Amino acid sequence: MVKTKTIREMLAPGNRLDAGRACEVATLLLKDPRKTGKVVQSLWDEEAGVANRSADALERASSRRPQILAKWKDALLDRMLDAKENKLRWNLALTITRMPLTEVETTRAEEVLRSWLEDKSSIVKTSAMHGLAGLTRWNPSMLPEVLDILRILSRSGTPAMRARGRILLKRLEAGKELPVITGDLPGIAAGVGRPTAGGRAAVRKNAAGAKAMRALRYG
After folding, report:
1. Which residue has better confidence, 71 or 3?
2. How far is the C-alpha of 83 from the C-alpha of 58, rounded, in Å?
């Protein structure tokens, strides 16, 4: 009998920034959310690559089914405090606002995300912008200040920051939901938990849009 690999074993192969099998793990979480705790625990793995891929898998899965992280909100907020790896930071920045947050929790997240705006990585800074914008969903009193931050960074930031800033400003000023910036899961569109009957057609139809979103995420 072939031994089933543990979550940790699935996340182990690859260097620090490789996606490895994060996509497979994310799909596994959508099929069996009870395994989410194992992935959350791996955020503290002593191997940076494992921790990074854990964050990647959680980000991908939560973009389709945010409720799988409901039990792990405090853990994710705690992990943000000492996250040093770029990939860990940018995935946590995109993930944390997908769960309902209290005013105290939004303040905790805001402090970290603001500090990440000073990161050397353009991806981290761009994702922190997205995270700050997402916090306004749960704490509308933050909106004026976040809009000011986005206006400044959409003029003075890196090309990726300027592009993301323009999109975020347009959505927030119009009172619309923010776009979901996420990694791919074949046949599963962002915002849903499993493929629909027309999943393949939808993936093809949205290919151009997905390519543009990836450019904003990693540009």
Report:
1. 71
2. 15
